[in-house]
Amino acid sequence: MKRTEDIKFREKWEKVWSVEKKIQFVILVIIMGMTVIAISVSAYFFVHAINRQNQQHTTEQLAMMTAECDANLQQYKSVMLSMVMDESVQEYCRTEDSTRANILAGSVYDMLLNMLNIQSNANFAAVVNFEHNRYVYNGNLNLAESNFENIYLDDYKKNSQIQGEDNVVFSFSNNYYRGERYTLTVYFPVYSVTQVGKKYGMLILNLDDNLLLQLQSKRTLPYSKMYLMDKEGNVVSGKSFNETDEESSYSDMLLGDSGHVMKDGKLFYYQKVGDWDYFLVDEIPVDYLYKDWVGIVGILLVSMLVIMLAALTVSRKLIARLYAPMNKVIRKMNDVSQGNLGTRIHDGDMDSDSQKLAYGFNRMMDEIDLLMQQNREEQEQMNQIKLNSLQSQIQPHFLYNTLECIHWQAASEGKGEISTMVKALAQYYRICLSGGDDMIPLERELEHVKNYLIIQNMRYGDIIELEVDIPEKYRQIKLPKITLQPLVENSIYHGIKLKEGRRGKIRIYTETEDDAFCIVVWDNGEGMTLEQIAYLNQQIQIFDKNIGYGINNVNKRIELIFGEGFGLRYYKNPEAGVSVKIRLPEREEE
Question: What positions belong to coiled-coil segments (predicted)?
Fold first, then answer.
């Protein structure tokens, strides 16, 4: 494909394009090449600088927020560890006596209340004894508002599967408070201080973390999203209220504790949060990074366009001065190619070399004019000879069949119908002769058809009905004589006569087109298939014995008199039979 395009371009360069166009093309290519190089170099350094600056800024911001996140998580772990070591919590979780547990619940409740007063961002705290299915809850909101009973167990199981059950488990979600707010929930197992590995229950603390609020606020920026993601790729914080939990499609691309990756038109900077299984991610659309570069490219493109227009304007004027005489000759030759053979070159303002070229051009056109005049005269003589020859061939065409009809009618019946036939025959040949005129009015041509049908109906027993629907304004239009009769004859012998019952109808009417006047001969005879009609229209221009001499003759005479585009065309009727349309130049009464 590429080789073919190269060949086509080379052919245009060598054979089609003018010298002026070639020079303009070379100038345009040079300007475009220099501009593309300038844009490419500028874009490379600009993008490199933007990426370096953005990477430095984002990395510093991530490092700062990651350190804060790690400090917060360590602080919450320390708070939970101090609460777990409380004696009332330990005894509440390990006691099996329900009465004793109810007494201890008050102490645990007071301890939780004290912790809530110290930890100002805490929403609620709870101590759960898994073995005996009991818990102590204390919080700024009641159980119904926090929906604690329905949430805590499922939320813990979901996050512990990822983070492990043997250590502190963090949950960043909007599961509590019926999905109306995002909070941080810390789950810490209550182990025995006397028996290694013995787990009695769990301590739960729910807080409004500052880091969560910061991540949430960054969602309002149109170009950046910062969120916390676990090692499985689940986004655990930084989502807006109406967003569902989502899993990142690039988590497998995170290598090491920090770095950046690009995917789906976005740049992701990430950094691991301390020793926790969390990554802080800053997501930036690449379009935002390059928006300034797009503006610079736009300015360069506009500059390139201005330079190209200026260069083309200067080159056109310069080339016009240098090649004005050559362009003048080319324009005159184009006029000749469009059929204007009377054009000549005026060489008054041309140099000596161009004057010789103009003299040769004018001399050649004079010779062409002379040869064209001679050719027209010879062609007119040849057309007249052909027309006379065709006319002389068609006149006796019907004589023999008619004489046979007269002989058959006289021998079989011997009645007055012979007189009618002879009279019709006389009128028929009177129109054929027409005083030597080749063109007769449509009215006389219709009379000729009627006389012909009188003879045929007497011959075949009134099997043909004729209907003529020609407006009066068209009846004096002249057309080549004996145009309709061969078409009617063709309808009888190849349509109606073949029809079962041997009765049929012929209708002659007119149609108008945008640039033509049409006479239609319609019959309801045996008809033809679409393939036969297509073959007939294809072969009508030449003599074909399978088609018949008459319609070829009619079509040829119309074409010789009126020119190409006029003549006969056959069509298949929807109901039955065929129609032939005679296409003539548009004109009314003459």
Answer: 361-388
Tokens found for residue 544: 């074909």
User: What's this model's pTM, rounded to 2 decimal places?
Assistant: 0.42
Higher pLDDT, 348 or 270: 270
Helix, coil or strand: residue 8? helix
In sequence order, the 6+-apart residues with CB closer than 8 A to the CB of 253 are 261, 263
Q: Which H or E run includes 5?
A: helix 2-11
Q: The tokens of 77 are what?
A: 């772990």
Give the pLDDT confidence score for residue 299 in this predicted structure.
76
pLDDT digits (tens, 9 = 90+) for 414-464: 655 665 565 566 556 555 555 556 788 989 889 888 888 888 887 777 888
Nearest to 563 by CA among 532, 531, 534, 585: 585
List, for residues 239-277, the tens digit of each pLDDT value: 443 444 444 566 666 777 787 777 777 777 888 887 777
Tokens of 223: 């170009």
211 exposed, middle or buried (CB, 10 Å; 0-12, 13-18, 19+)?
buried
Q: Which of 467, 468, 531, 460 has the alpha carbon at shortest distance from 498?
A: 460
Q: Measured between alpha carbons, how far is 582 from 288 in angstroms, rounded to an integer?
A: 72
Residues for the chain: how many in total? 590
Please answer whether residues 203 and 89 qualify as being in contact, where contact means their C-beta atoms are separated by less than 8 angstroms: yes
Rg (CA), the chain: 52
Contact 484, 449 (CB under 8 A): yes
